[in-house]
Amino acid sequence: MVSESIESLRVIDPLVLSLGVVGLVALALGGWWVLRWFNRSPGNRLRRLLTKYDDVAVVMHPNPDPDAMASAMGVAAIAESVDTDATLYYPGEIRHQENRAFRTVLELELETVESASDIDSETVVLVDHNTPRGFTGAQMVEPLVVVDHHPGNGTGTTFTDVRTEYGAASTILVEYLEETGVDLVDSDDSGGGDVELTEELATGLLYGILSDTNHLTKGCSAADFQAASFLFRAIDEEKLDRIANPQVSDDVLQIKADAIQKKRIEGSFAICDVGEIGNVDAIPQAADELMHLEGVTAVVVYGEHDGTIHLSGRSRDDRVHMGEALRHAVSDIPMANAGGHARMGGGQVSVDHMNGIGPSDGVSKPEFEKRVFSAMAGERS
């Protein structure tokens, strides 16, 4: 019997044997590359990095929005899956009714930070922004990790993942969860990992994506749609509705009304000064409201709060890169900063510096509005 088997091997075409060997080698190499890719994916690299630390501080940008809070939740879930304690920090305030509802409905435990000394951990992860800001000593903080989708030059000392083509930072975190393997809590369909995708986390990440992309209608990538689809089966629809439809305060409604009544229009562009306000989160909401006006393709709304002029811009005009327009409009005003994406931008200007304190002569509001109109029109002085 053995001799017959040997004889049968001898009569096999050497070409067939060679192809078989090549196929086995290719299969082995393919498996090795798949395993190598899996281990080197950003989500798994971040997870392995976090195993080296007992605790981590996840820091959001000032006055965090749902995308920032959801991204922080995602990092915390990954950290806790490897027994690393995560504390979520934010500078500023949470004032926007949508943001307050997000925090309350999802029962987030967040710590405020006014100074770098308030951050207990030396291991810092920045989410939804790439340069520490908004608190005393921020410039001295060197983040270990940066995960963001905004333009900027900030980096982490060990891990940086900035994807400006994505509509939300939450989308990046969803990809991390998929890469590390995620368990859908209370579901028979398990991803085989030990990062738990709870209803709260899924709902938060989905709303983070929806809020930063205007419900998947602006600045989206295919990844944003894919992430939303992945999350949908795990969300709590009742909580999602409570976050999306919070009660609106009287002052926000008044500022929206002022923006509509006091707007100044040139061509298809609109600008409005809403004056002194008590709630700066009403400014982007007023900008969103003006974008509903027929014939208006780009808007800038600004108002003053506590010695600072806050700017918010929106654009659905392919000719207007709102972030660049705002950056150019404030470029020669000391201590001013502005920027953002093509469709959405914001900034802050010191009232004193706008009035002429320091090395500049200052600029009046009519002149400033003229600059903004010119910048939106693509004119550069």
From TrEMBL:
Domain DHHA1: 268-352
Domain DDH: 56-209
InterPro entries: DDH_dom, DHH_sf, DHHA1_dom, Oligoribo/pAp-PDE_c-di-AMP_PDE
UniProt keyword list: Membrane, Transmembrane, Transmembrane helix
Segments passing through the bilayer: 15-38
Pfam families listed in its UniProt record: DHH, DHHA1
One MF annotation (Gene Ontology) recorded for this entry: nucleic acid binding
Name of this chain's protein: Bifunctional oligoribonuclease/PAP phosphatase NrnA
Species this chain originates from: Natronosalvus rutilus
Lineage: Archaea, Methanobacteriati, Methanobacteriota, Stenosarchaea group, Halobacteria
